[in-house]
Structures are given as C-alpha cells and as structure tokens.
C-alpha cells in the first residue's frame, strides 16, 4: 500500500484507556490514527481492532538456548550459570540470528514494543541493535556495566541490574548515580528468589522493579507510596519455582503493573500466552490484564502519550483479529476472548 494512502479498519474497536468496546472504524495514515468513527465504511479489513502488546521485561539474548533442564534459578541465570556459559559460547553470528528470530516471533504474536535487559556489555548491545535492524520494533535496552566499568552503551535507555545481591553495594550505587546523571532510567530485578534484595533495591529508587513475587504487602505498600512501577513475569516464576506475585495486592495498592515474559530460554516471548495464564491463574479481570499488557507497559517505557491505546493522534500500533476463526467463533465478549484464548493464527494483520 502507498505510504500516504488511508487504511480503513472496521469492526469492534477496543478503544481508549478504559478499553471500551465500540463498533465503527479506524482510519490510519502514515502510521498514525487519524480518525475513529461509527459510520459504515468500505474497509480494507474487518474484525476486532485492538492495540498491540508490550513485553515489559525480556532477555532476548537467551534465545541462543531453549528449554534447558529444570534446575535452581541461580544455576540457570546466576553468575557463571548455564545461561551465561551458553552466551559466552554462542558467538556473534548465532546470537544475532537467535535474537532476530525471537523479535519476529514477538511480532507474529502481537507484540510491538519491549524492554530488554541486555547482558554482554557493549558487544551485547551492538548485537541487539543489529537484530533490530532486521526486525524493526520499539525497543528500550537496559545495559549492564562490565567489570571495573560504570558506563553503559550510549544507545541504552538505562541501567539494568540483575539483583542488588550480585554486586558490591558501592559499585551499584556508583553505577546508578552515573545513570541518573546521564538522564537514564534504572530497572532492577528484586524479590524473585527471596526477599533479601528488596529493601536495597527500593533504596536505589529505581524507575521500575521486576518480579517482586516474594514481596510482603508492607514492601508493596512502600513501592506504591514511592510510585515505583512493577513488571511481573508469572510464567517465568512458575517455571523456576520461585513463587507467584500477589498481583491483586499490587493492583489494590495502585501500583502500575506491567507484564513481561522474562528469559526466552524458559518461555517463548509470546505475550498472548502470558495474558491467558495471568487472567486464568492469578487475576480474573480481563480488562485489567489487557491494560497491564498494553497501556501499563507503554507507561513504564515512557511512551503512553503516543502509543499503547487506540485514540486519535496516537501511533497506529494495532492488530486486526479475525472473529470467525474456529478458535474465536461463538465469542460473546471480544475483550475476554482476546485475553484468554487469542492465538497467532487468529491475527489477520498487524500495523
């Protein structure tokens, strides 16, 4: 299609911050939502029109190793663990190819934006930038300083910390200070395998926390009072046996909760699966789950003013879903069906 030709999408629109169901059309021009209306139009595509998904925590580099043996978390992803040995052995070409395939998998499963915790220092960042050149997506890369280094790659959005227990406290404080001085954000894993790193993580006043499945309600209250978002990865926590997050408490306390798929070696980066699991196992609130996987992720990425929902003037990061597939035929609530049972084969097109 011509870059300047209007694209008309018609059907059930999942509209705005409240994800209201509307019948009508969406007009896209040059990648922007120019108009939303209720009239009948001669549309290019008809179906359920929904915002695409945001994966707020993923380790793309892990794509070089899939489905490892079940083992303790520290042996999998800790310093010197299986993941880091695999990354060291993979080499540049294989790692970039693995990343590119994962990015394409994310596109095919409805995701358009993600936050990646990047290992491998500057070389690791260069590899994901190369992969993004093959499969363009909206990415926020969090780098880790190498041994004896405080700086991260200039292309990084911010500093990504595995856990405060993995670093000397003075070194982590210095790295955090350098990140803030350069206007970058700080993301920290905390409360995943235990609660002993939560207080130190909160004291660093990060831009967001990841996991917090071992956090007490008192600790969550402190996080809420400080206005710190949390990204949860429940499928990953289930695989590693570290316990599941108290999502209901997080929501009740007013925490902005995003969702991620975490290590690619443990789970596919398919946010459709994450949504369904979250809705059925932890939070019987499909609208809230969808918000966590779209708008809240965009908020944590700092792009919610221009994306994350369907509204005039926002970027048209949309997917059109075929309501007449064998999987979706008979649905009476499009939003709930999207959250609980959507498959890649139900997606007609992504924009």
Polypeptide structure, described:
There is one protein chain. This protein has 351 residues and is an alpha/beta fold. The chain has 2 domains: 7-52 and 308-350, Urease, subunit C, domain 1 (Roll); 53-67 and 110-122 and 132-301, Alpha-Beta Barrel (TIM Barrel), CATH 3.20.20. The protein is 34% helix and 23% strand. It contains 13 helices and 15 strands. The chain has a 9-stranded parallel beta sheet with strand order 12-11-10-9-8-7-6-5-13, sandwiched between helices. Strands 3-2-1-4-14-15 form a 6-stranded mixed beta sheet, with no helix packed on it. The longest helix is centred in the N-terminal third of the chain and has 17 residues, at 92-108. It is globular and about 65 Å long.
Tell me the CATH topology of the largest domain: TIM Barrel
Largest sheet: 9 strands, parallel
Proportion of strand residues: 15-25%
Strands side by side in the biggest sheet: 12-11-10-9-8-7-6-5-13
Tally the helices: what do you get?
13
Query: Which CATH class of the largest domain applies here?
Result: Alpha Beta
| Cα end-to-end separation | 12 Å
Which consecutive residue ranges, at least 5 long each, have pLDDT under 50?
none
Number of domains: 2
Assigned CATH architecture of the largest domain = Alpha-Beta Barrel
Gyration radius, to the nearest Å? 20 Å
Superfamily (CATH H level) name of the largest domain:
Metal-dependent hydrolases
């Amino acid at each position: 299609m011509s870059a300047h030709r209007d694209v008309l999408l018609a059907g059930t629109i999942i509209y705005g911050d409240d994800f209201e169901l509307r019948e009508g059309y969406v007009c896209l021009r040059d990648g922007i939502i120019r108009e939303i209306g209720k009239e009948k139009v001669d549309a290019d595509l008809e179906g359920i029109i929904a915002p695409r998904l945001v994966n707020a925590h993923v380790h793309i580099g892990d794509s070089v190793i899939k489905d490892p043996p079940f083992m303790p978390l520290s042996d999998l992803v800790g310093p010197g663990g299986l993941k880091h040995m695999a990354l060291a052995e993979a080499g540049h070409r294989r790692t970039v190819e693995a990343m590119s395939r994962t990015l394409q998998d994310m596109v095919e499963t409805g995701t358009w934006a993600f936050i990646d915790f990047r290992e491998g220092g500057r070389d690791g960042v260069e590899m994901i930038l190369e992969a993004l050149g093959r499969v363009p997506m909206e990415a926020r890369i969090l780098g880790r300083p190498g041994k004896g280094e405080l700086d991260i790659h200039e292309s990084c959005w911010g500093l990504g910390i595995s856990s405060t227990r993995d670093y000397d406290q003075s070194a982590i404080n210095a790295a955090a200070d350098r990140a803030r001085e350069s206007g970058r954000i700080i993301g920290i894993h905390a409360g995943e395998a235990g609660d002993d790193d939560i207080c130190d993580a909160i004291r660093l006043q990060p831009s967001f926390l990841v996991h917090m499945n071992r956090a007490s309600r008192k600790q969550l209250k402190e996080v809420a009072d400080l206005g710190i978002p949390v990204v949860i990865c429940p499928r990953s926590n289930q695989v590693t046996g570290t316990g599941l997050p108290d999502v209901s408490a997080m929501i009740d306390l007013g925490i902005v909760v995003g969702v991620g798929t975490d290590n690619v070696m443990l789970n596919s980066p398919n946010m459709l699966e994450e949504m369904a699991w979250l809705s059925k196992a932890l939070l019987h609130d499909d609208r809230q789950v969808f918000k966590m996987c779209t708008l809240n992720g965009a908020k944590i990425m700092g792009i919610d003013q221009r994306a994350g929902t369907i509204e005039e003037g926002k970027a048209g990061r949309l997917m059109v879903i075929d309501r007449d597939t064998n999987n979706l035929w008979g649905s009476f609530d499009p939003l709930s069906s999207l959250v609980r049972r959507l498959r890649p084969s139900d997606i007609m097109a992504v924009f």
